């Protein structure tokens, strides 16, 4: 199969433009509402003589993760609705282009828009606060390591909701949250059972131990700190390299399968 049949820069650009403009009205309404709320919060804090140094960083974090997860969960709603599924299937683009367009919008696109939006809003709102109240909250600084690290964490976590958007036909966000909770609970239960079996003698009477006796028995294990450090390092590498590509790959094949079913 030729590469052009899988992805074409021109087709991808037209598809990106179409996906963005098709939701522009909703996007502008939501952006206006969010801007108004942020202006109100910043004005109240400045008026009460309680300027905050973390206001915009906190707002950025909440908008990035909560807003991003919700947007991602709805990114394939067109494919799941009977009224719009046919139009989606007839789009002159390959499956990969449809997949990649929405991936770009919900990951890098949403993260960059959130950073730019919070930065611009912070300058505007605090400019107004300075003129009216003669004091202001701290301006949002997008050029910090913490901000970019949060964006990286968002891209990793977003991949789970991206898969949920493809996999579930309705209530994508809620169902994805429920699945995450069930998986975490199951893994925690398995881990407790595993540790209980491996360290049976150590944990015998665990709930009857006080803090001191527990610490003594823990120290008796003689665990090499270097091994713990290596485990944490390996965990970090796996966290950054495995989940997002894995969930995106599953999402792509699930998307292809869903298109075949809908076409039939």
What can be said about this structure in brief?
With 264 residues, the protein is mostly helical.
Record keyword descriptors for this entry.
264 residues; mainly alpha; 13 helices
The residue ranges in which pLDDT falls below 50 over 5 or more consecutive positions are none
Whole-number mean pLDDT: 85
Count up the helices.
13
- Element-by-element helix/strand order: HHHHHHHHHHHHH
Q: Percent helix among the residues? A: over 70%
The number of distinct β-strands equals: 0
Describe the structure in your own words.
- The chain has 264 residues and is mainly alpha-helical.
- Helices cover 80% and strands 0% of the residues.
Secondary structure layout plus pairing:
Elements: H1 3-6, H2 9-21, H3 24-47, H4 55-73, H5 77-80, H6 82-89, H7 95-133, H8 145-167, H9 172-198, H10 200-203, H11 211-219, H12 225-241, H13 243-263
């Amino acid at each position: 199969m030729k590469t052009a049949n899988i992805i074409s820069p021109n087709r991808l650009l037209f598809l990106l433009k179409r996906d963005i403009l098709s939701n522009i009205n909703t996007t502008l309404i939501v952006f206006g509402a969010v801007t108004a709320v942020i202006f109100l919060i910043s004005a109240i804090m400045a008026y009460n003589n309680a300027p905050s140094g973390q206001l915009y960083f906190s707002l950025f974090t909440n908008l990035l993760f909560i807003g991003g997860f919700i947007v991602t969960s709805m990114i394939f709603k067109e494919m799941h609705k009977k009224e719009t599924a046919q139009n989606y299937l007839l789009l002159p683009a390959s499956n990969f282009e449809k997949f990649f367009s929405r991936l770009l919008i919900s990951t890098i696109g949403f993260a960059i828009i959130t950073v730019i939006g919070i930065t611009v809003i912070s300058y505007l709102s605090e400019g107004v606060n300075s003129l009216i109240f003669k004091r202001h909250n701290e301006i949002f600084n997008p050029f910090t390591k913490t901000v970019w690290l949060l964006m990286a964490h968002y891209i990793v976590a977003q991949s789970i909701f991206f898969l949920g958007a493809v996999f579930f036909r309705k209530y994508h966000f809620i169902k994805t949250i429920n699945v995450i909770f069930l998986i975490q609970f199951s893994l925690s239960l398995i881990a407790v059972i595993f540790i209980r079996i491996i360290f049976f003698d150590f944990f015998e009477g665990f709930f009857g131990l006080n803090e001191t006796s527990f610490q003594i028995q823990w120290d008796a294990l003689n665990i090499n700190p270097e091994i713990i450090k290596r485990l944490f390092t390996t965990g970090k590498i796996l966290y950054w390299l495995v989940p997002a590509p894995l969930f995106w790959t599953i999402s792509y094949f699930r998307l292809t399968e869903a298109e075949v079913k809908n076409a039939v």
